[in-house]
Specification:
2 copies of one chain form a homodimer. Chain A is built from 13 helices and 4 strands. With 336 residues, chain A is mainly alpha-helical. The longest helix of chain A is centred in the first third of the chain and has 17 residues. The first copy, chain A, starts with a helix and ends in a 29-residue tail after the last helix.
């Protein structure tokens, strides 16, 4: 994939840059980032159908939880609690990552176990700790609703709805959930006054301290797996496998997909366990554990100021209106 | 209030009509209804602020439940489960009524204990079985978020946020949640071909069987309290007080606010206990218990066909983007 190649190149460049004198030149760092671009080659029929599915709580056993419950598009595509609430108020094992710009990630989930958005979308529906439904039950529900049947047929041209179509449509909608036009992007695109002196100082610190080594590319992250706790162990790693759960390799223990820093002001709390409530705390922890560096209060503030310039235009769309269930539609069972 | 006067007049007219020969004339019934009108004298600043609050789960203890969770504007302003899910997955005691066109009701809640939308809006926030928060905690949360502080000041012109402003803004947003332009309204406004022959037959049955006695006015309901189980007792009344909980009068036991039939195709399941899954079932039960009438299958189908013409244009707006919490904002406690 083109994106992965780009990411690999960026990481390689970052690795070289960090050990060379050329590091200090702003132009060198600039090449490690890219502005968010609006999505190309979008299938609008799939997007509109996928938007309905994304907001439809009937994809859960209870009829209460939708994709948007934990990846709330009013809230930076996240739920802003340490770990999510699942069926019957179960406590999730890991922080809900933002759906915004997730199409730019090299893989999905913290451990990267889904190759792409389509592979991810089916997961929570059938996870007993999340939406607690099954793919079969989800299809039975959709196939009982005439308006859904017609819309799937219009979009996919087939007589039968299947889970592949469902996840395809949700993934296509998610492709549109990008956030261009952040102040950092405006600055990259030539508006030199878009960033303040403090924010630029934060950008310089972010680069020169080494944050950029992992948080680079158009998504400032999302393009590699890295160990949580490089210089110093992270105390939130207890009972956590990370990437090792996918690869089976001991070397991948505590490795996680580097989270994007896009819209990071909106996606608190931070880390895979949601243990850091504020950006100040997250920057301090990252500096110490990943870089062996204790930022001063002034440095921390400047980096946080830079991070807040990464909030882009949030996806803007009308709320979808969901077709009502038919008499024959199986009813949700929230209390069974 | 003008609306109450109108409602009283309509009920009086219905009472007379039902016992007179003039009942059979369609014009006589026509006067018992009115098309939904777009809201007048709307304060747009309050509406935009109220929309944010309506979608903000931070008004709940868990940070997970918003007004829209149980009055879902993608789903006819209801949650489509028998009784709602509250904090920690508590099972609610009563079916969540639709918020759509609720400004046209003579009072709020099934027992009418809130005089208006503003009085209603504060209830669920502080109800331990619903959002499980408190008004004080809600204000502390809002007052910690600079963007909210500015917006409240812009809208209300005061330095301090209070619960009165919060409920005022939510109620103003809810005033905009009306659904004009249903096919029934188009028919009332002169498009004679807007209803099919079957739907018109259902309308005639609805009138002549006496459904109109309670379901009249612009909201086809919502303007009186009536006993659930007039001719025959309703088995879902166990442990239910109804309007008597408000008035203290034994005569008001099992009395409930007559629900609106607007958008009724979208607001299943039906009745205060959500026991009827389909319109067919609801029409059958209402006929037997309230009117002592057993509708034939053909009659039932015609009435249901008429009821489905009451679905109007659903509220159309872009999803609100909520301002992020500040470092000092108290964090939600979903699992404590």
């Amino acid at each position: 994939m083109k994106l992965n190649t780009l990411a690999a190149t960026l990481i390689a460049v970052a690795g070289i840059s960090l050990s060379s004198a050329a590091l200090a030149q702003q132009d060198q760092f600039r090449a490690l980032y890219a502005p968010i671009a609006p999505p190309k080659a979008v299938d609008l029929g799939k997007v509109e159908l996928g938007k309905k599915l994304y907001f439809d709580p009937r994809l859960s056993k209870s009829g209460f939880i939708s994709c948007n419950s934990c990846h709330n598009l009013s809230r930076g595509g996240s739920d802003n609690i340490p770990t999510s609430i699942g069926d019957k108020w179960q406590k999730g094992p890991i922080n809900s990552p933002t759906v915004l710009n997730s199409s730019l990630n090299l893989a999905q989930f913290w451990d990267g176990r889904a190759a792409d958005l389509k592979a991810q979308a089916g997961g929570p529906i059938a996870n007993p700790g999340e939406m607690a439904f099954s793919h079969t039950l989800a299809i039975d529900m959709l196939a009982s609703i005439p308006a859904y049947v017609r819309e799937f047929k219009m979009v996919f041209g087939k007589d039968k709805i299947d889970i592949d179509q469902v996840t395809d449509a949700i993934a296509e909608f998610e492709k549109t959930l990008v956030t261009p036009n952040s102040r950092f992007d405006q600055w990259m695109l030539g508006k030199s006054e878009a960033l303040t002196k403090d924010e630029l100082a934060g950008y310089k610190l972010f680069n020169e301290s080494g944050c950029v080594a992992c948080h680079n590319g158009p998504n400032l992250g999302g393009n590699s797996f890295q160990k949580m706790g490089v210089v110093e162990a992270y105390k939130g790693n207890d009972g956590v496998a990370g990437r090792a759960a996918v690869t089976g390799k001991d070397a991948d223990r505590f490795n996680f997909k580097v989270p994007t820093l896009r819209n990071v002001e909106m996606t608190y709390p931070y880390f895979h366990d949601g243990a850091a409530n504020t950006l100040t705390e997250a920057v301090d922890t990252m500096g110490r554990l990943q870089l062996g560096k204790k930022f001063t209060q002034a440095e921390n503030q400047q980096i946080v100021a830079f991070l807040k310039t990464l909030t882009g235009d949030q996806p803007m769309f009308t709320i979808p209106i969901l077709p009502p269930s038919a008499d024959s539609t199986p009813r949700p069972t929230p209390f069974k």
